[in-house]
Amino acid sequence: MQEIGHWVNGKLVAGTSGRFADVFNPHTGDVQAKIALATQAELDQAVADAAKAQVAWGATNPQKRGRVMMALVGLINRDMDKLAEVLSREHGKTIPDAKGDIQRGLEVIEYCIGAPQLLKGEFTDSAGPGIDMYSMRQPLGVVAGITPFNFPAMIPLWKMGPALACGNAMILKPSERAPGVPLMLAALCKEAGLPDGVLQVINGDKESVDAILDNETVQAVGFVGSTPIAHYIYSRGTANGKRVQCFGGAKNHMIIMPDADLDQAADALVGAGFGAAGERCMAISVAVPVGEETADKLIEKLVPRIEKLKVGPYTGGADVDYGPVVTAAAKENILRLVETGVEQGATLVVDGRNFSLQGYENGFYVGPHLFDHVTPDMDIYKKEIFGPVLSTVRAQSYEEALKLAMDHEYGNGTAIFTRDGDTARDFAARVNVGMIGINVPIPVPLAYHTFGGWKKSSFGDLNQHGPDAFRFYTRTKTITSRWPSGIKEGASLNFKMMD
């Protein structure tokens, strides 16, 4: 049985805690590896080593740091197939979806090549007699990223790219459910020219997380995961004086207006609702057709599309639409919520509860589900299911549909499908959600914009990637300078303007 350790000071090292967690192959249900769970002492030592390595890395000019990012882009592209295979084997995604995961992370690394431009400060000439003012952005020191299982490449790259480009050292604590790709990425960073110790990958559980949050050297923490854990990390981290950004759960609505292209909307719902088995924080899990006629026609178009979905292993070829969920516990939770939906009165139009895949009976596969006549008081509406389950809530008007998205406690993403520009503009302006799609089902911004939700989907003031990432991973220093010019003047005790 393979034992997975940590990446420390530029090499793979074994864990010393004696504690391990199982890494499953979700396609078969078998345990494929054991992953070491770090102790606080191991974490603290990794932080101390990172702090030493960061001094020289932080003093390296941004252009050279950008060149490391440039080299990393080439190496990730070179190893795309290897990375995707490991990602699919540990997570369950299809190969095309795994490559999409890697690609969206890669785009942030491409953005980070522009570190010299992004780190430029401001300058004011002659702010006063012989006085100039300027600002500079400097790294924080050692920062940490705590990343989820559902995007084992994208989110680690979103965290490490800006943090490293800004001159920080990073402690990456990836999900113990899918650790393979983060360790491979660390090795590629070394090959790209990143000095040893600047990126440390420490595998672990809550003990490691708490050690990160309590370590005085760690200056900032970025997290993506569930809302309860996001709130915990934000609260404990900020209480310890750290800069913290945490992104939590979601319940993303897609409003379908009567004038929408229903074929386009149905295709979008299937792709956004069932891709990656629904294990996406930007998945559309609630369809909101406006008007009974729109709802009836939409359900009519959705049913055959959903029933044709092919569920299978990543080795099953290009026609496999999605694979298993990540663990048996995840599967049980999804099916439990489906049963709750039936018990609470929703209409289960497509029933995937008895799905079984021949030859993979022990895998963590969940068939596709479509609910109709879901109401806001039902658990399947209120909770993030994180599985291949699409709920339909019928609205009688645009205002009612808008209110559903606005009243929900989560505010990650939402979308509207319509041909009417006025309606789309009104929706984008009024809805209290962080990322909006107009005839776009998964409104994930590109790398040069920022990614972040509102309400209980996000904790902290700055978003992921884009300009916000460079603000989050740096602090601003402002300098006021004056060079003597031979002018004599007496001392003044007054706080005065410089005019």
UniProtKB/TrEMBL annotation:
Q: Name one GO molecular function term.
A: methylmalonate-semialdehyde dehydrogenase (acylating, NAD) activity
Concerning Gene3D superfamilies, the annotation shows: Aldehyde Dehydrogenase, Chain A, domain 1, Aldehyde Dehydrogenase, Chain A, domain 2
Q: Which domain of life is it from?
A: Bacteria
State the top-level EC class.
oxidoreductase
GO biological process terms, semicolon-separated: L-valine catabolic process; thymine catabolic process
Report the EC code(s) recorded for this entry.
1.2.1.27
Q: What Pfam family is a match, any one?
A: Aldedh
- Aldehyde dehydrogenase domain location is 15-479
Which InterPro entries does the UniProt entry name for this protein?
Ald_DH/histidinol_DH (IPR016161), Ald_DH_C (IPR016163), Ald_DH_CS_CYS (IPR016160), Ald_DH_N (IPR016162), Aldehyde_DH_dom (IPR015590), MeMal-semiAld_DH (IPR010061)
Protein keywords: NAD, Oxidoreductase
Q: Check the record and name the PANTHER family matching this protein.
A: MALONATE-SEMIALDEHYDE DEHYDROGENASE
Question: Which protein are we looking at?
Answer: methylmalonate-semialdehyde dehydrogenase (CoA acylating)
Species source reads: Falsigemmobacter faecalis
